[in-house]
Each structure stands twice: as structure tokens, then as C-alpha cells.
């Protein structure tokens, strides 16, 4: 979209572009990034960069949203439906283990290349096994490279081993003391991923596969007193590879005399034998890193180093002084021009000299010269059909530019600007006929005639149409001016309210940067991923995570950023129909707990948590929410309602009568990732009721489908209700079997409190039970779990408890004892750990939930204001019904309020128990004093 058009659309979307006085909204540091989670993210919804800002070498690791492994394929298991009733029956008989076993064998979706893998891998493995050399004592290993073993996180963290699967030899010489003469020796190698074949002094001593600890006993006559040589061939099929236990487990000792162990940890020699095994069958595809841009400078001693990210205009900076020259770098990722820009200046002429290279972790890549100003990188992902192309184009003022097939060198320029594009052949989940080369060429040609100033101005204009719709000021503490990493450390020691507002605005920044109209939705890491095998595939997990990513969108005035979420729902409603048919013999559509670029909707991973049926219904909750906030009737009629109806049709068919209670229940399913496959988890029933209710209301609004709505009404009243259990808790399951000491991270049965609405102050008994459950579950958790708890406590009007959770979300993730915990990394990315972006979004939404709620029939002002935030002002927060509110509070009390009515509906306001109604007119503003008296 060109910038002018974007600007006009923004005016249509938001009524008027409001520019609020901005307080400094910066993340900043006095040093370059060391780790990826220190680096600063930029993104235009499609191209994302992580900026390290090193002095001698800058590194920008970048992503393109559509680069994933895999390809279009059928994710459904034909004939799975035959097992639905037998699984249900086993569950009804209380045979959970049998039900899970049957489901695992017959009901899970299809993995990639499941049909061919057994034969291909057996062939490949035979070839590996027949290879004889490194185990031979005559093999010369002293020229081989060395690696330190073991590597608990897997060999992938070693440079050169990223994403490596296949066969690798590890060899080590070690000494056995003379005192061990005549003794059998035990060699302990710990856990090895996935198979080892081990030799000692040229003699084969054994092989083990799977998760077992490797301990081999060697008869004394096979051991040399003095030098011995161990050779281990490790075969790894997927993900983590190598010797993955801790250093203590890698040792040798006389049998029964562990205390006399000689450590084998440390340097080993290695040789990669074959890094091309057949692709391992996978349920889902992985989001991939794209490539890396390195800027290499002459070594200099520098002072006054600073690195920052300015949220007000989505530009990052590095600056420093060296030899009397001030150097600056500016970075952004532009949506209107679809390029990432890096602009280098010096305050004296001719001082910009550097060499720039492109490289990537993908093994299969080349770089080449396109023209005198452009270098290109092309890559292909290992296990999949996608190709990527990137162009790097330079424009320099003064000096000399040389482009060869690997680098761009700039010598003695006054300034230099690099523009980077990236594209793949992905068009949509069933079409990979795109031409990335042509896309890159077109984009670079388009910017080649523009000035840096105009490209930057267009970027800022485009970004601010989203960002400037909202502002928040919570006051300032004494740490406000500190670098961000220091602020994180001090946050628990003294109040730093502007850090909370920065965090909320950062959530908005991240959403704008990773989810733009026309693009794909934010995944588990938003847009940013540097690993070939990222945690959980950096995909879309739908039993909390994808939904949480979009929690702040409506309330924090970024409704347009939900468009990519709506497009994935469009896709999933189609693929999910196939799953409904193949697995359930049902109409409509269904989504289980994960999906990816190819929009698989079948159950994945293990039957104890992968068979969870409520994904589609939860997504539909957010379609309805969009309608409630925007009143967009066209969206409701053409897009949301047909999808909501499809999801409801599925459940109208799927719900069955529980033989014990007579209620309609959801079976088989699970309470996300908690205690296995069951009949009738509470969360499902809450979500299904919500779906049915919203469908009925939508049908009424649209004046259609009366008969269908009547069917839903009937079923609605028969669904198993929320129940209070023997500890006064809200039951997580149909049976009263909650464990009060269980602190599991998922708080799924709280769905009815947030994001659902059926448990509220209007249902005091259930609310009390929910509160009891929350207390049992405790205040700890992974990043997203803590963020969810912020929202839940806010909905319960427990502002101080919600605030406590927010402070946990803002606690340091990676400074204590080297072990990461839920909190924030230096770049304020949320730590699950590891990094997962949902907590950032859930946290931002949680703050909004403390200040304004509109889920009932009234807009509540400051419903859960914590004592720690006695004063503040907020502008541009949105309420259901099409209202935008600005208000201020002081000493914990409302001070003033303005409401803008976008739809002209009746506005019902509640502040501290006082309720007023106003009939509004579309486009008009209404002002109130502290007592809700209209001014
Ligand atoms: C769900 C959670 C995990 C993690 C994963 C991506 O499965 O239970 O904690 O967030 O998604």
C-alpha cells in the first residue's frame, strides 16, 4: 500500500489521526547486544530485523514472514473418524490410558512424509552404518576440528552445527591410570540424540537409540592402561543433536568406582559424515530465520556509545565517537516501501568506510552481484519447498562503492544507506508459485530513485497512523532516565511507572511491527526468529498463544493490526472443514492446538494434549469482539458470521450427551496440556457456550438463520455448566478432581472470566470459586501464563493482584544464576522462557484491562486500578460499542473524561458504582467531570 493511500485509510479507520504529546518512549543501552534477546527488533509486518549494533561488526539478523519449512499438504488422517466413538467410549468408561493409546495410533493428524520415511531412513541408516573409518585406530584424527562436549542444549548452538541433522563422528584420546589394571571399565556418555554407535580402541562396544543414558561396560582386556581412543558415531534425525547431558555424565571409571572417574568432558575431535538424512516426519512446519547482514568496520576505540529504539517513530539508532568523529546508524523496516533501511553517517566528510556481507544459516544458499549497487542472496530451506531471495542495495554519498559476488565495500563515503528486501515463493497456503526474485527487483527499482529522507518520512507517517492513536502517562520514577537493562534490574526496588507505560507501548509497537494489514499474523515469536529449529517451531499455538497475541489490538486502538488474524481464520475455516469431515464426520470446521503457514488443523503431537477441539471457537470469539468494538456490519455479515456459524455447526454436531450427568459435553478433548485426554473439560464448555451465544446474537443482528439460532439456544442450555468443587474451587473438569497443590501454567477454566464473560461480578459464587482456583494455582508461571493472570485478576477487580502479576512479567528473565525464568529479556521481549511474544501482548492488554472494561453492558472506568498507580492519563483507549476514551485520574480517583462516539450508540458509563446513560451521536465528543457529570 502506498503511504498516501495508507494515510487516507487511517483517517477512515480512526476518524481522525490524533497526535498526542509523546513522552520519551525509548529502549536504550550503553552497549551493543551480546545475545539475540539483547538485540532490538524492527519490523514492517513482513520483514523483521534484530539489530545488535556492534561497533566493529554490526549484525542484523533478519526474517521474512513467509519463510517456513514444509509445503502444502494434507494434514488430516483419512478414516480417523472411525475411532471417534471408540475413543469416546473408553473415556466414558474411565479408561484414559487406553483412549490415549488408541487416539495416538489412529486419531492424530498426518506428519509430513510419513508414508515414505521408514523406507528412506532405513536405507540412509544402512549406508551410515556401513561407513568404516573414523572408528579405526589407524584413522588420522589429529587434523580434525575440535568441539567441546557435552552440549546440553544440543550441538545446534555451535557455529557450523546450526540446524544440523545427520551423522557426526566424535573422537577422543584419554588416559587410563595404571591402578585400573585388570578392572572392567564403565564408559558413561549420558543422553545422546538420537543414536550412537561406539568404539573403543577400534573395537565396537555398542549402540543405543532413544532417550536412554549410555553406559557401556568394557572388559578389562579391551582397555589399554595409558592412552585409549574412543570414537562415537552420533546419528541425529531432527532437532537437538549430540551428547546432551551435563558434563558430570561424560566420564570413565572402573566399574563400581564412580568416585574415581576420569572426565571425558571437554575437547573432542569431530567429523561431519553426512548432514543430509531424509527429512524427519513432522506434524507442523517451522518458521525459519532468513539471513544475516553483517557490517564490518575498521577497529576503533570508541566513546559515548549508545543504542536505542524509538517507539514513537519505529527507528533504531546506534551512535558513538571515535577519533573525534561522531558516527551514527539509523535502522527501520518500512511498510510503504517494503524495505529495511540502514543509514550510516559521520559528522566529518569521507569517514564512512565499511564492508558489508550477507550470509545465512541455510546450508543451501548463494550470494551474487546483481549490479554495481546491488548484492543478492538466494536460499532454499532444507526440508521444504520454499525459496527465498534478498537484495541488498547501496546508495552512498561520496567515496567509492565496489560490489562483488560476496560483499559490498564502501570506502571514504560521507554517508551510506543500505536497503534490504526479502521475499519467498509463498503466495498462500496452497500456492507456492511466487517469484521472489521479481519481487525483490521491483522493490529495489522502486526505491532506487527516492531519497533516504523521503523513504524515512513515509515510513514514519505510515507507522504513526497506528501508533499515535493511543498514549498513556502513569507518571515517572527516579529510574526513568536509566538504560533499559538497568531499569529492569531496578524495577522491583523503586516505583517506575513510566516503565509500565513503556512496556504497554512496546507491546503496541511489536504488534504494529509484526502484524500489518495484508500480511500474515504474529506467530509465537511475532516476526523474529534466529533459529532453524526454533522453540515450538515458532508457529501458531492456538490453545492460548495466537489468541493472546491479539488481545491488545482492539482495546489499545490497533484494530487494523487484527486483519492478519482474520485472514488466518479465513484460511483455517477452509482447512478446518476437511478436518471436521475426516476426523469427526462433522459439518463446519475445527481447529486443534497448533497450526502453521500451511494451515494444518488436525490434532498434532501427542493425544494427551493434541486432541483439543476448541481452537476455531476461540478464534471466533475474537471475530465477534472485533464486531463489538467496531460495529462493522459488513465484516460480521461477510466474514465473521459465516465462520462463527461453521464453528458452531461443528459443535452442534460434536457435543454428546454425557451418560452420567445427561449434560451435553465435549469429548474427547483436554483442558489444555493438563492431565490428559478427557471427556468434558470446563474450558471447552465455556468457549462453546460463548460461541453459541455470539452466533445467536449475530444471527439476530443480521436478521438471518432463526432456525439455526433456535437449535443453538436449545443446545446452549444443555451444555455442562460451570461447577464448584469440594475445595470451593471452580472445577477444571467435569469431575471434582482438581488438585489444590497443582500450579500448572495453563489456567484454562478461567476462560469464562477472561477472555470469556460468563463468570463475572454478576455471578458472585462462580467468581469466588474462580478466585479460589486462582489462589491455588499461584502467582508463578511462564510469561504468557503470568500475562493471562494479569487480565484475570483485573477482570476480578483485584487491581493490586493484577499489578503484582504485571511486576512479575516485568522482572528480569536472564540475570539470576544463569537460569532463565518468566519475565523480560534486556530487549523487553517476554520470556516464557525462552522468548515467546504472547506475554508482551497479554501484558499490554492486562494494563488496559485494569483501567477500562467494557465486556458487560457498561463501560467501567478504572475497574481495577492498583494502589501503585494512583495517577495517570490515557488517551485513545477503546471500549466495545465504538467508543474511544481519554481520561485522567489522580489520588486513585477519576479526574476527567472524554468519550468519542464512533457509532452513535448509547453509552453507559460506570465509575465507582455510579452509572449514567447517554445517547450519543456518531462522531461527537462528550466530556465529563470527576462525578461523571457531563460538561
Ligand atoms: C503451549 C504452552 C507452552 C508453550 C507452547 C508454545 O503449548 O503450553 O507453554 O507456550 O504453547
TrEMBL record:
One annotated GO biological process: carbohydrate metabolic process
Glycosyl hydrolase family 95 N-terminal domain segment(s): 27-113, 283-429
Domain of life: Bacteria
Domain Glycosyl hydrolase family 95 catalytic: 451-851
InterPro entries tied to this protein: 6-hairpin_glycosidase_sf, 6hp_glycosidase-like_sf, AFCA-like_C, Galactose-bd-like_sf, GH95_cat, GH95_N_dom
Entry GO MF terms: alpha-L-fucosidase activity
SUPFAM superfamilies in the record: Galactose-binding domain-like (SSF49785), Six-hairpin glycosidases (SSF48208)
Residue ranges of every copy of the Alpha fucosidase A-like C-terminal domain listed in the record: 853-924
This protein's name: Alpha-L-fucosidase 2
